[in-house]
Amino acid sequence: MCGIVAAVTTGGNVIPDVLHGLRTLEYRGYDSAGIAAPAEDSLHLRRQVGKISALEQELANNALPDTPTAVAHTRWATHGPPATRNAHPHMDDEKKIVLVHNGIIENYAELRADLQERGHQFFSDTDTEVLVNLIAWHQKNGKEELHDAVRAALKEVHGAYAIVVLSAKTPDLLIVARMDSPLVVGLSEEGSFAASDMPALLHLTRDFLVLENGETAVLRPKNVELFNAEGVRIERTAIRCDWTPEQAEKGGYPHFMLKEIEEQPDVLARTAFDRCHDLTGDVHFEKEFGFTDATIQSIQRIRFMAMGTSLHSALLGQQMVAELSAVPGETLNASEFLYSPNLEEGQTLTVILSQSGETADSLRAMREVQKRGGQVLGICNVMGSTLAREADHLILTHCGPEVGVASTKAFFGQLTALYLLAIRFGRAREKLSKEQGQELIHDLRALRPKLDVLFSSEAAERIQKAADFLAQVSSCLFLGRGFHFPLALEGALKLKEISYIHAEGYPAGEMKHGPIALISEDFPVVAIATPGRTYEKMISNMEEVRARAGKVVAIGVAGDQRIANQADYFLAVPEVPELLSPLVNIIPLQQLAYQVALKLGRDIDQPRNLAKSVTVE
Ligand code: F6R
User: Fold this and answer.
1) Quick check: CB of 309 below 6 Å from ligand 1?
2) Does 3.40.50.10490 match the CATH number of domain 456-599?
3) What is the DSSP letter of 204?
4) Rounded mean pLDDT of the chain?
5) Which residues are annotated as catalytic?
6) pLDDT, tens digit (0-9, with 9 covering 90-100), for 563-585
7) Angle at 184 between CA 200 and CA 608, to 5 degrees
C-alpha cells in the first residue's frame, strides 16, 4: 500500500534511478504518483493522477532540474480520492519541507484541527499533509534540526507510517522513520537510499539496513546514522539481499504474472532441493527454523493463519502436516484471530504464512499470539521483512521477488515449504520412517520435470479454449474436495481478482446444500478432479452439474477418459502422488485466470482497487 523511493547521492542526476525504483513498486499502489527534488533553497514537485507512466509523461513535458536528491511515491488511496492534490509528496504550507508517507495517521483529524488553529493551511484530504505541517511547526518552535523536528512530530502521532522527509534548507539530508509500515535503507558508495522494499533498490545496491518500529535514520550521501525510539544512536550490520535486479524485471514477458507462473518449477528447486536429504529421508532447514526433534515432539496442536492466497496455502498446510505427522491443526483468517477467546496457548504452535511478511492483519495476529505466550513460525518470502524478523521461528520460501499483484509463485513456494515442514514434523515425531521420508523426497524431486508439460503448446491451447468460454460468463463456481478444496478457493480468487468475473470456491460436498441452485447453462463449474480419495465423489458432482445443463471445465490427469467424458473443457495435468497434486493443479488454474483476464483486456498485474502488500488492517 503506497510505495516510497528516495535517494541522496554524491552527485549527478538521480531522477531516472528513483523512477526506476518507483516502477518496481507500482504494485503497491497505482492511483497517483509524484516526485520532489530540492533546487536553490526551494522544493520542486511533480504529481500526476494515474500510473507512473503519467508522472513520466508529466516530467517529459515539465522537467525537474537535475538533482542528486529526490523523494518519490506511488499511492494507494486511503484518505481522499485519487487526485493531484492528494498525491504524494506533500509539502508544508510554506513549501519548505516535503514528505512521502505509507500508512495511516489515525489521529490526523485532531492534529489537523490543532494546526489549523495555529494558522496552518491545508490543500489536500490526506493525513500526510498534517504530518508534514506538524514537522514544520516543530522546526519553527524549538526543534531547528530536521531530525529533531521529525522525532517531536512523530511523538504526537498514532498510527502506522513509513516516511521520508526532505527540507529545502538541507538538500543533502533525508530523514526516514517507520512504525508498522515497511521501510528499508540501501547503502552504496554512490549514495544512501530508502524504499518500501528491497526490489525497488536492487539496481542501486544489494546492501540494506532494515528499520525497526520506532527507529529513525539520517541519510547523507556518504553515511547513514540510525537512532532508536529514544533518539540514541545505534549500530546495525547491513544485510545482503540475494535477489538479483533481473528477478524484479519483466524480462520480455508481457506481464509479471505470466513470468511468475512460469518460474514455478524453479521455485520448487530453490525452495526445496537443498533442504532435502536423500540419505536420511529428512529435511534440514536453516538455523532460523530453530526447532529440535524434542521441541517438535512437544507440540500438541498447530494453528495456521494468513490472509488471501496465503490463507489458502495455510489450509493446505494444515492438511499436509496432519497427514504426515498426525499433529491436529486448525486454520484461521488472521484478521479474525483478534476476536477469538484468549484461551491458554499451551503447546500450540502458530504458523503464519505471508509472501510479503508485511501484511498488517497477519502481523497483528502474530503479535497477539506472542502476547498470549505462544510461539510463531513464520513462512515468508521476504528476508528482512517484519514477519521474518519478529517470528520466533522462520522458513524462507525462495521464490524471488513477486511483483504481479495476483500471487502465484509465492503460493507455490509456500506449498513447497509446507510439504517440507510436514516431512520434518513427520520424521521428528516418528510418524514417518526413513524410507517413507526418502520416498516423499524422491516424489518431490521427480515433480520438477513433470511440470514441463503444463507449459507446452498443447496445454496452452486447452487453456485458451476454456478461457475463451469462461470470459463470456459473469459468474462461476470452483469445486474441489480434500486437498483440492483450498485450490478451489484459490482458483476462484485468482479469477475474480484479475478478470473481475464473480467466482466462488466451495468444497464440492457443499454444492447440493445451496450453490446448486445457481447452476444453469450460463453458470459453469470448474472442477478439480485428479485421482485420490475424493475422485469418485468429484465425478458424481460433475454429473450433477451436467444434469442441470451446467458446463464443466475439469482438471484431470492426462488420458483420464472418465473425467474427459464429464467435461466440456478438459485441462490435462500429469499424474503425481495425491499429496503433491495441489502443486500441479494450481498451475492450470492460474493460467486459466490469466488467459481470461487477457481476453477481457484487464490490467493483469495491477487489477483495480488492489495493492500487493496490504499494510493496513
Ligand atoms: C491474492 C493475493 C492476496 C495476498 C494477501 C496476503 O492474489 O496476493 O490475497 O495473498 O494479501 O499477502 P501476503 O502473502 O503478502 O501476506
Assistant:
1) yes
2) yes
3) T
4) 95
5) 2, 612
6) 999 999 999 999 999 999 999 99
7) 50
